[in-house]
Design goal:
CATH topology: Glycosyltransferase
Strand order of the largest sheet: 5-6-7
Number of strands: 9
Number of helices: 13
CATH class: Mainly Alpha
Oligomer: single chain
Shape: globular
Helix content: 40-55%
Strand content: 5-15%
Largest sheet: 3 strands, antiparallel
């Protein structure tokens, strides 16, 4: 792979990590017996609400199971993950519900399985998904289109979102797997567009940027899941940190690493004393400052990747920051002893502007937390 890894020596894992991994494995062993090959999203009253396979979070539960299978070789977890992947075939064939989150869905199912087992059918599925993701690219504006119309009166043909940085690894992987550079070219052009249009000088980011879909001209920005257009949605910041670090990993383009670091410094400068971010870093007085543990977990994974890609002395700074966030999530936000709660990590905020899934465990927060602990324990293999 075109990985950029400067810090070749893996630091020792913190002492608490082994117990964290045991707690994760024990809890998932229990919860997987109810959830099975279905698609959890947000926990309500202690139980994960299950979504249809077309929902954007469909990859995170099987991805989490693959992380655990990699260590334990538990065939029951593998079987559940494989059943989840098979159900996504219907999503591809139905087509109309597909959007930019193709990368989230098939990277953590088919790419993960192919990397771990060499399964040829998973490779085929992932390459098909990569072609469909590439087909959403608008060459006039150099962006991968976000979403589809939610109703007949909506026009979001010219919308791009920061989340899509985490979908680009599917395209980079497809180029490496097929030796066909077209996928990589699209990913790079989208990442360059993000550098020019999403990242602010202080390291904060927009959630949604709009373009004229015919000319490609930038027409504005929207608050999206953040509080307002010019606020600083914390999970969007984490998408940028990890997404830019991954683009650097695949391309070696220094400007991507610089962007990841600048955004990381903004993120870290905004953290409260317990190291877990609020859902938006720029909130006016009177707006509830719910935490978003999922933003912390994703950012920690990005920080760990930055740490591997810089000089070892500099890398210590980013790794230490990631350790602080993950330890806070484990020790203060974990639901390890609560058998009435299926989520691993409490206090996630999915969509405050729509008042949806506030202050609850989220499956993507759980996934990134498990990935982060796996990374601290020494794993360098990424599904992304």
């Amino acid at each position: 792979m075109s990985e950029i890894t400067k810090n070749a020596v893996t630091p020792a894992a913190p002492a608490w990590c082994e117990q964290a991994w045991k707690d994760i494995a024990g809890k998932v062993d229990r919860t997987s017996r109810r959830i099975g090959a279905r698609f959890p999203h947000a926990s309500q009253a202690g139980q994960y609400v299950l979504e249809e396979p077309h929902w954007w979070t469909a990859g995170f539960w099987p991805g989490l199971l693959w992380l655990l299978y990699r260590e334990s070789k538990d065939e029951r977890l593998r079987s559940i993950a494989e059943e989840c992947e098979a159900q996504l075939d219907g999503v591809i064939s139905a087509y109309y519900r597909l959007d930019h989150d193709i990368g989230f869905m098939w990277t953590l199912t088919s790419v993960a399985r192919f990397k771990l087992t060499g399964e040829e059918e998973s490779k085929r599925r992932a390459l098909l998904a990569a072609n469909l993701l590439m087909g959403r690219f608008n060459p006039q504006g150099n962006f991968i289109r976000a979403w589809n119309p939610w109703n007949e009166h909506q026009d979001n043909r010219g919308w791009a979102i920061i989340d899509c940085m985490m979908n680009l690894p599917l395209l980079y992987w497809a180029s490496e797997t097929t030796a066909d550079p077209r996928y990589k070219h699209v990913a790079i052009r989208h990442a360059d567009m993000v550098l020019a249009n999403f990242l602010r000088p202080d390291g904060s980011v927009y959630h949604i940027v709009t373009f004229d879909p015919e000319t490609g001209e930038r027409t504005g920005a929207l608050g999206g899941q953040g509080y307002a257009e010019h606020s600083a949605w914390s999970r969007g910041t984490s998408w940028a940190i990890y997404g830019m670090a991954l683009s650097y990993r695949y391309t070696g383009k220094q400007e991507y690493l610089d962007a990841a670091k600048r955004t990381a410094h903004f993120f870290l400068s905004q953290l409260p004393e317990d190291h877990v971010p609020v859902w938006d870093f720029r909130l006016p007085e009177g707006v509830p400052q719910y935490r978003d543990s999922s933003a912390g977990a994703c950012a920690a994974c990005g920080l760990l990747l930055i740490a591997e890609q810089v000089d070892p002395v500099e890398g210590k700074f980013y790794r230490a920051a990631a350790e602080r966030i993950l330890h806070a999530l484990y020790s203060q936000y974990g639901a390890w002893d609560d058998e009435a709660e299926e989520g691993l990590v409490l206090h996630g905020t999915s969509h405050y502007p729509e008042r949806r899934n506030m202050d609850v465990p989220l499956i993507y927060g759980d996934y990134y937390f498990v990935e982060g602990i796996s990374r601290l324990r020494g794993s360098r293999e990424l599904f992304w």
